[in-house]
Design a protein that fits this description.
This protein has helices spanning about 10-20, 25-35, 50-65, 80-100, 110-115, 145-170, and strands at about 70-75, 100-105, 120-125, 130-135. By secondary structure, it is mainly alpha-helical. The longest helix is centred in the C-terminal third of the chain and has 25 residues, at about 145-170.
Length: about 200
């Protein structure tokens, strides 16, 4: 979470300040990462003046400043609109390319996992354990519209079907099934009758 009483630059410097890094080095590092996430002109803004995507980029810049070997991102784009999410997915690919950080990215969005990952680990439901791992051998930079991304997404979704049914059966009525509860009527039903 960002601190609303701090300016963007101070939010990005915060972890380095806690680590005892000198002010001049903190500022230089913070500006370098703000430039990487395209927010240098907002360095003196406050959090309430930023969009959701901008806030995520500030948080990403702050996380990168301490130069840890692993970056954990727990559903960072879940609350963003579709257009902002698409931009940040492309930006994250670029940042990964530039920093070569190991990023553990938690998401429920299979397309997003395929788009961003070298490996996708599918977790089983109750108890949460590793069910299967997929290597994503698709050239970068990746686009959501890519056939390769779609193919891998479908392959992983097929593996997840059993887990989705298990969770749905636990949460919905006992008579619920994926096959039974389709939204669209069968092809033999004429929806135009009596119009």
């Amino acid at each position: 979470a960002l601190f609303p009483w701090l300016r963007v630059i101070d939010n990005v410097e915060f972890g380095m300040k806690m680590a005892g890094i000198k002010a001049s080095r903190r500022r230089e590092t913070a500006l370098r990462y703000l430039k990487m996430v395209h927010l240098t002109k907002f360095q003196n803004s406050y959090v309430h003046e930023l969009s959701g995507g901008m806030k995520q980029r500030v948080a990403l810049a702050r996380a990168l400043t301490l130069d840890s070997q692993v970056l954990l991102m727990d559903e960072p784009f879940a609350a963003l609109d579709s257009q902002t999410k698409n931009i940040l997915q492309l930006e994250l690919q670029r940042i990964w390319w530039e920093t070569k950080k190991t990023i553990i990215f938690v998401t429920h969005n299979v397309e997003e996992a395929v788009l961003l990952s070298d490996r996708v680990v599918v977790m089983g439901a109750n108890p949460g354990k590793i069910k299967k791992e997929f290597k994503i051998e698709v050239a970068r930079p990746r686009q959501m519209e890519s056939r390769d991304v779609s193919y891998m997404t479908a392959k992983i979704m097929k593996e997840l079907k059993e887990e989705v049914e298990k969770v749905a059966k636990a949460e919905y009525d006992n008579d619920w099934t994926i096959k039974k509860d389709t939204v669209l009527p069968g092809a033999d039903i004429d929806l135009g009758i009596d119009i």
